[in-house]
Amino acid sequence: MADILLPHNRMLSSDVWQMNNSEELIGLIDECSRAKPELLHISASPIEKTQYKTLLQKALPPVSFRETNTGRTEERTTLATEEVVCKFLDAGWSLDEAVAQECEWGESAAIAIQAKAHLEAALQHIAIQTWYGTQADEKGFRGIASLLPHTNSPMVVNAGGTTANKATSIYALRSDIDAVQYAWGQNGKINDGAITYCRLYDTKGRPFWGYAQPISGYVGLQVPTYQCIGRICNITEQEDKGATDRLIAKLLEQFPVGKEPTMLFMTKRSLGQIRDVRTATNPTGTEAPYPDTVFGIPIYVSEAISNAEAILTPA
């Protein structure tokens, strides 16, 4: 039976990595994740295996007032289980010794550059998968956009853009132990095996010598209910079809009272559009600054969100 994930204090991916990895690897991961706001701000939990079930409260239990010395009929709350499956991400690499020897700073530097590049690519792959799921990598975990795929999907606001493959989205998340969070399998262990000098093979099976290292881990995304995610879709550069505070306000109306999103993710283009429609009110007439919040909700700019999304239509 899969593990049941119990509530605990809010953690981030960086907290999980520190539990079961070397200080050297943690330092490298922290460096590679600095430009990945998804991994910096979305909650995370370690799990012992690679999948688990979390309880989802579908509805509140009925209660009532009663007279003293008079009982009432008690009913249980409606609970369901949500299974989260972590997927295996492989970022292993190999390097021809001839290429390493050509590095001006030496072979060790070439190896370090290769290892860091693959680790950073792995974290970026996770960030992209967070939004686009199996549309980005069919062997990975499901993503937010794939859960909100139509203009008439729950928790979706349509900006009305129509330019094909020039659209983007703003994503709103409520992130916590009982909302959106990453699940890191095998207690967050990142397998960074020893760098070995070994026999490698080209695409035709011909051998040569070089270096290789396995880098891998298990990660998944928990989305227990649609009411903890939201999307403004079809944002384009067409007139009156860009990102605005008004659209974000409309999206916030879709969230239950008291369970509003805790963060917004968007592209630089969307952030610029929000800035452009704001009016500067300072005496000098200086342009309005780039906003870092909307209605008190933090904005995070992500390079993992595309400005070339397809136009969403009704289901």
Overall description:
The structure is a single chain. Helices cover 23% and strands 27% of the residues. The chain is α+β, with helices and mostly antiparallel strands and 315 residues long. The strands form 4 sheets. It has a 6-stranded mixed beta sheet with strand order 7-14-8-15-17-16. Strands 2, 5, 9, 10 and 13 form a 5-stranded mixed beta sheet that branches. A 3-stranded mixed beta sheet has the order 1-3-4, with no helix packed on it. It is globular.
Q: TL;DR?
A:
Helix content is 23%, strand content 27%. The chain has 315 residues and is α+β, with helices and mostly antiparallel strands.
- Portion of residues within helices: 10-25%
Radius of gyration: 23 Å
Span from first to last CA? 36 Å
Find the structural class using helix and strand composition. Answer: alpha+beta
**Sequence of strands across the biggest β-sheet:** 7-14-8-15-17-16
- How many beta-strand segments? 17
> How much of the residues is beta strand, in percent?
25-35%
Shape descriptor reads globular
The total domain count is: 1
Order of helices and strands: EHHHEEEEEHHHEEEEEEEEHEHEE
**Total helical elements:** 8
- Average pLDDT confidence is 91
Describe the biggest sheet? Answer: 6 strands, mixed
Low-pLDDT windows of residues = 1-8
